[in-house]
Amino acid sequence: MTIPARSGSSSRGGANFFTIEPEASGSPATGSSPGQVTCVFDTWLGDDLIRAHPVLMVTTPVKRALLGLQGASGFEITRARVSTSQFFREHSPGKRLPPFWAIQVRGHAGRDDLGLTAAGILVVSRRVLDVLLDFRIGRAVLTQYAPGRSASRRTKG
After folding, report:
1. Is the bond preceding residue 28 a cis peptide, omega within 30 degrees?
2. Which helix (H) or strand (E) holds 89?
3. Which of 23, 98, 126, 132 is positioned for an S-S bond with 16, CB 3.0–4.6 A?
4. In whole angstroms, what is the distance from residue 133 CA to residue 131 CA?
5. pLDDT, tens digit (0-9, with 9 covering 90-100), for 19-37
6. Positive or negative, the Cα torsion across 106, 70, 37, 39?
7. Is the bond leading into 54 cis (omega within 30 degrees of zero)?
8. Closest Cα partner for 84 from 95, 73, 72?
9. Three-class SS of residue 64?
């Protein structure tokens, strides 16, 4: 089931956009059917917005809040299948995962409510950020989006 966001864009201008690097929790499962999002969790520290590179996922309450935004743009939401790795089961015995939904980001960074930079960094509008801040995203790294400036991931060096 695909749930598209309503068309139309929201905020304008770089000052109204932010980059988010969500909690990293796993990876896409190998051998998934085309068009189906399946991820294997190695860890989950409880955030409602996570990344299993390259997949971005949210819990059901966040999905509902995002779809409730009037005129939201730049994304579609589909059901994700999730499972846990042996590592997860050994280190988090009895921990259960909530349902997760995959977000396909289709928008342009700095223009739509959700977009990706050329480097694959997630950019959200201020109103999406305001929604996300009502949920658990404590492990996400947030920064002001500066269009035109080369956005690069932090590296160890």
Report:
1. no
2. helix 86-91
3. 126
4. 5
5. 999 999 888 876 666 667 8
6. positive
7. yes
8. 95
9. helix
